[in-house]
Amino acid sequence: MQQRPLHTSRRTLLTATATAAAAAALGTIPSPAQAADAQPADSRDRELRRIIGRMSLEEKVGQLFVSRVYGETATNPAQADIDLNLAQLGVRDAAELIAKYHVGGIIYFGWAHNVREPHQIADLSNGIQKVALQQATPVPMLISTDQEHGIVCRVGKPATLMPGAMALGASGSRADARRAARIAGRELAALGIRQNYAPVADVNVNPGNIVIGVRSFGADPAAVARMVTAQVDGYEGAGIAATAKHFPGHGDTTDDSHYALPYIHHTREEFERLDLPPFEAAVRAGIDSIMTAHIVVPALDPNEDPATLSRPILTGVLREQLGYDGVVVTDSLGMAGVRTKYGDDRVPVLALKAGVDQLLNPPSLEVAWNAVFNAVRGGELTEERLDESILRVLRLKARLGLFRDPYTTHRDVDRTVGISEHLRAAEQIADDTTTLLVNTGGLLPLSARTSPNVLVLGADPASPSGTTGPPTTVFGKALTELGFTATALSTGTAPTAAKIEEAVAAAAGKDVVAVLTYNVSATSSQRTLVGRLAATGVPVVTIAVNRPYDVARLPEAKAVLAAYSWTDTELRAAARVIAGKAEPQGRLPVPVQRADDPTTTLYPIGYGLSY
Predict the structure, then answer these.
(1) Is the peptide bond before 445 cis (omega within 30 degrees of 0)?
(2) Tell me: domain 428-603, CATH 3.20.20.60, correct?
(3) Which of 135, 516, 563, 568 is the most exposed place for a label (fewest CB within 10 A)?
(4) Contact between residue 278 and residue 232 where contact means Cβ atoms under 8 Å apart
(5) Which of 233, 331, 431, 568 is an active site residue?
(6) Where are the domains positioned within the chain?
(7) Does residue 331 carry a catalytic annotation?
(8) What architecture (CATH level 2) is domain 163-381?
(9) How does pLDDT run across 561-578, given as a tens digit for each residue?
(10) For 313-346, how does the pLDDT look when each residue is reduced to its tens digit (9 = 90+)?
(11) CB-CB contact of 329 with 289 (8 Å)
């Protein structure tokens, strides 16, 4: 049977589903926590504890889990998604997931086919909420995603895509950071997504950090703290639960916790000076949730457990030292960093014992759910311990107004997502981010009056959701729209000798060559490409579309810019700077060391040229 689109009015949905279900299950409380925002904390907590008191053990265990689920709809996904759900989760769809495991949250991914287009996302959210409120104990769902912006973005166009964290750090504008989060939060809320795993609070002090990098606001703890606070204010002011991540700080590692267990060898003093300030600021700002890191910090936990499973870190530092009593959510439990030391049946139990409240995306929900259930039955965990975490989660749901109204509508989507006001704001914010690092002989800006013929070359990394096509094509189109004659040729992140020869030949007769560079290493053939192009005599402009450290390895370039991402928003901003339509206002939020002497700073924090 075809599912009816869930774009009926909010009033109809609430009347038909939430109010009736809640009243039936909760007796004299027709709408649990209905006035939670206005209630004193004690009164609110009494109502929430009454809800917890009506839960079975199975329901309590479920409330602690946030799971993936495949499909564009809650009850009628495509057969391929049903097959994936059955293989990985043992259920057919989101409705069966909720009924079987009583999960408290669902996370959206592009690869799980949850985020095809705005109306579909809203309908999926509404369908999930409808199912959740039809359960024996009706509790609204907390729907989440990773919408950091920049290179990590789950919801793509036509949603508004903002510059990423390091780009915002380059602008130095707390107002821009707050405005970006406020707009992003409003659009997520219109889609029914009410918890965002952002902002990143890691201080990126290691140029070789491949997992954080430009996802961080920068290398100055105080500056990162200011930007984190601004984004917390922006997201939560838009009705979204912000999530500072990855505690206790993932900024100084060269290992990726998706695939390994990184060690952070900071002393306790270094931790408190470098890593802690942004999280401390987030707590002071009233952050709704904090995500753990799958990293080992021996100075904080001599047992060398991953922070996600470490009681000294999560209870000792986060709960007791910082006084944080909000929701603690794990990073994905499917990542290798948390699975290295213990089995999948121990990880969720140890996380709860450490102080976690939400268990995110375990590789096998059945194994993880049964592990927690059996730990309570066997006495390793108590129901009282579960109740503590459930109360924190329900407090968050109440603060977000989900007990009053968990639904959205197509009208909310149409008047919020990707509207012209938001798109203009994204362009304005992006114009403050592009950083000009080299401009030999005043090559830039280029004048469109002479119709310069520009060859656009370089890296075309896998496109994040904010990019409508290969970056070289997007950048070439942006220059064309600004009055240039631009030709695009992708040479990739590791150009072959043949591709380099093709690029050199294509440069003949061009006025300028623009090369998009991507994480240039000492052995990268991108260095050979730029050197060969410079030898032709055609001026070379390079644009670092990820980490800004590329400038240290490209001395032949006549001009170098840092764009910090390869999304449309940041590529167009860089094009406007090259064309002189925008001033290069960005300043480095991280230092760049010499390529041949990492102990010597080539460009310090705060460096940036102007016209």
Answers:
(1) yes
(2) no
(3) 135
(4) no
(5) 331
(6) 1-139, 163-381, 428-603
(7) yes
(8) Alpha-Beta Barrel (3.20)
(9) 999 999 999 999 999 999
(10) 999 999 999 999 999 999 999 998 899 899 999 9
(11) yes
